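Lecture notes, continued. The same structure-token format from the folding unit now serves as the input rather than the output. Read the line below as a description of shape only.
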């Protein structure tokens, strides 16, 4: 079995349940604006808009700061809501940074890998991701936490991995394993950087892309069979 010296994790929907965090933050921000039914009324539209914009971000067609307010600008336009998208986005990100919902088995897996060199590479807003990781049970487990907003690069760009390798003083990419739930972001990014990849696929989705991960798991605990 191949030995990996460094294991790099994605955060959202890999170590943390972003759907639950987003839902809680969405409910809180609409509550602040005295729109208690906002979660139920607008979340479906928001998810469609947001997912499209995140794909644009991955493809390099949109910046992160633009994404933040643009998703709400489009939502408010679609539903004829007279709200300031920039301010609303800031409020939403504040609530999101308070959320910390773990994926099943995440804390146990990170604890079991405490003898390994661990790192994070995540696309997202620096303040939000830093806050969520700091409030998690594994806040001190990672040697490096690389956040796209802080580096100017994003997965799947190989540059964010090269930046991580510099911070980790990694000279041999074959000693690194990238673990994440997104084929187009985490796995493609790992392939671009020349590292082995592990696709976390809890819903057992069919891979309908040409992207081929080195490993595939449906439970985080299965990772231990690969790296220990």
């Amino acid at each position: 079995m191949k030995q990996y010296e460094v294991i790099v994790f994605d955060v959202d929907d890999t170590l943390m349940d972003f759907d639950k965090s987003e839902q809680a933050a969405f409910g809180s921000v609409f509550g602040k604006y005295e729109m208690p039914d906002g979660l139920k009324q607008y979340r479906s539209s928001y998810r469609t808009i947001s997912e499209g914009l995140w794909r644009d971000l991955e493809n390099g067609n949109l910046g992160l700061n633009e994404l933040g307010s643009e998703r709400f600008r489009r939502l408010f336009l679609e539903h004829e809501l007279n709200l300031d998208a920039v301010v609303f986005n800031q409020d939403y990100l504040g609530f999101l940074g308070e959320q910390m919902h773990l994926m099943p088995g995440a804390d146990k897996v990170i604890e079991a890998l405490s003898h390994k060199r661990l790192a994070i590479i995540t696309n997202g807003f620096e303040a939000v991701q830093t806050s969520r990781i700091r409030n998690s049970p594994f806040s001190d487990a990672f040697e490096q936490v690389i956040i796209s907003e802080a580096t100017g690069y994003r997965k799947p760009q190989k540059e964010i991995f090269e930046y991580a390798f510099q911070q980790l003083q990694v000279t041999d990419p074959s000693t690194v394993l990238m673990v994440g739930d997104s084929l187009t972001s985490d796995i493609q990014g790992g392939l671009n950087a020349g590292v082995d990849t592990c696709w976390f696929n809890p819903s057992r989705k069919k891979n309908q892309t040409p992207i081929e991960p080195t490993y595939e798991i449906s439970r985080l605990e299965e990772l231990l069979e690969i790296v220990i």
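Point for the exam: Strands lie at 6-9, 117-122, 144-147, 176-180, 196-200, 215-217.
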